[in-house]
Amino acid sequence: MPDMEYFLSGLHDCIEKGNYLQVINVAQKELDRTEDDSIRKPLALALSRTGSVDRAMEVLKPLLGTEETDHETLALAGGILKRQWEATGDRRYLEDSYSFYLRSFREGESYWAGINAATLASVMDLDVAKVLADEVLEICWEEYGRMGTRSPFWLLVSIAEGHLVKGDVKTAVKWYKLVTPMSYKSVGQIKTVRRNAGILGRKLGGETPELLKEAIHTPKIAFFAGHRIDREGMPARFPQKDTDRVKRNLRAALGKLRISVGVASLADGADILFHECLIEAGRQSRVVLPSPVEDFRAKLAADDPGGWLERFDRVLQRAAVVEVVSRATFDHYDEDAYSLTTDFMIGYSLNLAEELDGEMVPIVVWDRKIHERKGGTYCAVKKLRSFGLEPETIPLFPETEKNDVSPGFSGDSYDGNAPFRCSMVVVGPGGDFSSDQTKAIHLGAILEQIRKVLLAGKYPVLKKSLGYEEVYLVFQELTDAHSFIADLLGTGCSCSVTAHTDFALLFDERSFSARQLYSPALSEMVSLGRNLFPGDVFCTTSYRSLVRYFKLDSFGFQYAGSYSAEGEEDINLFRMLLEE
After folding, report:
1. What is 420-578's CATH number, 3.10.450.540, 3.40.50.1820, 3.30.70.1230, 3.30.160.40?
2. Can you list the positions of beta strands (E) in 444-541?
3. What is the CATH number of domain 3-215?
4. Residue 51 — left, alpha, or beta (φ > 0 → left; ψ -120 to 50 → alpha)?
5. Are 326 and 542 in contact (CB under 8 A)?
6. Using one digit for the tens of pLDDT, what is the confidence trace for 292-349?
7. Which among 252, 313, 306 is positioned nearest to 287, based on CA atoms?
8. Are 449 and 488 in contact (CB under 8 A)?
9. Helices 111-123 and 91-108, interaxial angle, to 10°?
10. pTM reported for the whole predicted model
């Protein structure tokens, strides 16, 4: 298989699994490097799935009106226009989408283009809708006759949707249910299925929308937390000998709950067992680490209770996605570092469930004892309950009474300064200036706006500093940083903003003097800020996930691509859109 064919196959596999950001990052870099237009289709599809429909159309446009305008390109353009119609309600997008889908169907006889044309024709009350549905069903039946139980996902969906266009809800429900066994691996496609069915269901009215909602598989996104393996000197909680029993119980729970995607860290013990169960069942494993992979792995290697480092490496190699909460490395982490990771994972899981039109399902391996440490499993249980979510609990000792208080285990003692969480905001003028004097004048105006906003909002700031091209501020509380950004932009300030949550270090913990506050992530945020333009407002995955965790509003988020400072790993960025 040629390299490019193999590369494109990998992109489509990631799209099927819902790993859109990974596709966008990898495809954009390869397109820039090779200028191979075949990359444009999966890139445009991934962009449209994340809501970046305008950018998706920009990527696809070079293929429209050329020899490269095959029926697949036409259908893809139809899909982007359909999303623009759904976002704006502008009927012109609806009509254009229908035209592209219909042309694609006539040129390529693709059942997927045809069923979309039929659905949109139904929305527009065109008489041809049921005629198109019959044509599509005829093609599907011929294909189904050849493939039988090996029929692809979209073939079964098209049969279901064809019956729905014709008003036969009962038969449509039957076929949608047949798709369920395939849905675990095609989790990235379910939102499209549910969206199209929803369009037709609302048109048919009555109990149809509810019947379709029940028939079409809802992706289950598991947030997971659990205990590590016991160390010497620990109270008995999760001995190494119990790993097989716990893994069997985990495997049974994942099957019972119909989990499609799992999100967890990768410490020894319950975390690794959870990811192994996902991978062995063909489900999607997403790993979240509190620090860079090399740093986390080194700490595990230095404290491996036996055989877990090799299992860590195997899971990491097969994980669909690896997210890192902090890009900083420290010799010691206190409880707040692990508490931050828990907050990140909850927010990340909720965002992922929304993006995939699914449901977050929390699962814990827990001894049912109350441990007051901020970063432990009981800490995760408390946080989940604050969202009204009661986790599915896999007890380590079934006979243990609930809410039994345990002194826990504090681990190695450390008397030095531990890193703590903070939120960084970098504000700059953005763009090019004719002279340093012009830049300085503009930066001075921004400084005055910042001063007024800080004074009016009474926001406590740990550190603020003026650089050559930017102002950066460090807030201890994310809520303060978030409100500050909204207030600053609300003044009409012409500036660029970047926001990130990470760890910082105090050289002297008795004082919050600005000169004693240090965070390795600041230099990357400053570097990013210097590449922005006025009006650019971006944040990182960690910031976005924690905004979701703290239930903050004011902004919507749209994926904007990745950035890397020289010698550093990529950072995924989201554009922050100030809501009315």
Report:
1. 3.30.70.1230
2. 463-466, 471-475, 496-506, 517-518, 537-540
3. 1.25.40.10
4. left
5. yes
6. 999 999 999 998 888 999 999 999 999 999 999 988 887 766 677 788 999 999 999 9
7. 313
8. yes
9. 150
10. 0.88
